[in-house]
Specification:
The complex is a heterodimer of chains A (229) and B (351). Chain A has eight helices and eight strands. Chain A has 229 residues and is α/β, with parallel strands linked by helices. Chain A has a single domain, classed as Rossmann fold (3-Layer(aba) Sandwich). In chain A, helix 1 links the parallel strand 1 and strand 2. The longest helix of chain A is centred in the last third of the chain and has 14 residues. In chain A, 50% of the residues are buried. With 351 residues, chain B is an alpha/beta fold. Chain B has a single domain, classed as TIM Barrel (Alpha-Beta Barrel), CATH 3.20.20. In chain B, the strands form two sheets. Chain B has an eight-stranded parallel beta barrel with strand order 1-2-3-5-8-9-10-12, surrounded by eight helices. In chain B, strands 6-7 form a two-stranded antiparallel ribbon. In chain B, 50% of the residues are buried. The chains are: A alpha/beta (229), B alpha/beta (351).
Amino acid sequence: MDQSAPFPDQPGSVRTVGILGAGRVGTAVARQALPGGYAVALGTAKPPEDIELIVSFTAPGAVAKTAEDVIAGADLVILAIPLSHYRDLARHDFGGRIVIDAMNYWPPVDGTMAEFEGEESSSEVVQRLLPDARIVRALNHIGYHELEENALPPGAAGRQALALAGDDPAARAAVAEFLDRLGYDPVDAGPLRAARFFGAGFPLFGTRLDRAEMTAALHALRPAVAAGA
Amino acid sequence: MEIGIDSFAVIMPGPDGRMQTPQERMDALLQEIELADRVGLDAFGVGEHHRAEFVDSAPTIIMAAGAARTKTIRLNSAVSVLSAVDPVRLFQQFATLDLISKGRVEIVAGRGSFVDAYPLFGLDLHDYDALFAENLDLLLKLREESHPHWQGKFRPALTGQGVFPRPVQKELPIWIGVGGTPQSFLRAGLLGLPLMVAIIGGTFRRFRPLVDLYRRAGAEAGHAPEKLKVALHAFGYVAETSQGARDEAYPPWSYMMSNLAKERGYIDASRRQFDAMAAPGGAFMVGSPEEVAAKMLGASDDLGGLSRITFQMSGAAGNPVAMRRSIELLGTKVAPIVRAAATPRVAAPVA
């Protein structure tokens, strides 16, 4: 896609965004997606009425639904629950949907979990748990409040880059467009195994880089990764 | 508006690069509590951490020493890691402290920003929220009744055993300490408990929707507006001049941040970021007395009326002399400006 083009009048393939989780990350992504022109729904394990007040104050314009309804109505699903609860996701039917995994494995804050202690990215573990989801890892290496503060229109000088990785090229393209509409230059890092290079502990995590810097940083970490191959 | 200090009793190197001993830090901390009382500050909070660079794993003992040396200042935890403690024991300790201090203690209950307490006490971090909710429920019950009947999931039931002593204060203040989690604001509002919001970066204004959520939830649950008090905990430091305050507060802040960044796997913070947060609109109350007073009043406006602001002043902990001067300036120069300007305002919840 031509990433320097201004926003089209309508979003492309993705029109409705469904967010699982109504915490710091979920509500911040919702706030940022709404002005991008998306219809946004949030759902948690609780009944929708338990999070209605949260949604109405923290993401006015978004709606609270059950997690099942959030997924069923979404072109793009975003996982924004604590990773420690990720196994709960297995009861949902993702039906081949594009799913952004914004969750992080962060032992100093959330404790250790054996399955995430290996070399691979937590998103690879999540993808195996959810074979009917087209997982793309994104939004995990930027702070939830920075997501709102650092957004800039396309072409703006110093526009921050956000990396993405996933095994499905069409899903990656859709997520790239979504990140662009949130106010960021998407940088396609390629297959999901590349996601490990922007997890916690790597230099990209929490660092504000533009597209050229992000691309160079990914190249430096693993030359094949940044080509998007 | 009340003005307080929260200390995390952190051990760090002084200006000469030498690391303080735990005994030196404790001695300095008790002097700081005494000084805060003498210059008329309203509250002093002691943190709770279970790791090498802090001396505050037993905050109630520090508070007891502080209570014995002071007259009017209120003493609070900042925060009590409620998920990782038996609420009966916590209540007993604070009730005892209330007797020692003649009714000047407050509990601020929260998660804390470190997780060391969970493995230390054999708790599963994944139960954090359930533990917090259950322990808070019991703590509130203990505040109401001396012989409660109570049943939970994590602790043996209480079947009317007595919990003593009873505190001096009819209702021992129990605040909920929160970061940015919307659910925590909602819970505090529904329970009608005062809210202590920790804002350690970015801007104060960003938290307004969450504070409004708290007030609305409280109002809908039938709690009176005066019960729904909001306090702010933020990084702060005062010196004679604006530049001097920044130059003195940056090195220790940078030291703490770079240790944290190493442990948590993110990039180190820069002087540029520090200066941005110290500038008008940013979340650091660092500067000259006039500058800091203006920032406090601005924060209160941003958040719809604050009943208390507490300064997270651990940044100056490496330099006890600078820390004491900062406390003195806070009491003698900042407080008069703030008190003259601020009449407590409680905003109506926004629709």
